[in-house]
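Open question from group meeting: does this chain pack into something compact, or does most of it stay loose? Before anyone orders reagents, we agreed to write out a predicted structure and look at it together. Recording both the input and the output here so the notebook holds the full record.
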Amino acid sequence: MAISRDEVLHVAALARLELSDEEADRFTEQLGAILEAVSKVSELDLGDVEPLSHPLDLVNVWADDEPRPSLPLEAALGNAGEDEDGHFRVPPTGMTRES
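Structure tokens returned:
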């Protein structure tokens, strides 16, 4: 499946991208190669292949959730530039809720 330069420019316009002539030509060639590679999958007989979400069986390995002592406040705030009443003090961002 080929893609035309006009289609590349159309998609770029939808994405609000400005492409130079060189970029448009390069992307037309690259996207054409990608579409050609992907289209080869349609040539395969995949009738007996079950759809899957991931090619490998994934299993989460979780550690047992056991209570343990937390970091002392002095150690947690040890590298803080400034602290106030047991909290990190950071400069304001200049943003308001209306922003």
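Observations to bring back to the group:
Residues 16 and 46 are 38 Å apart (CA to CA).
The chain has a mean pLDDT of 89.
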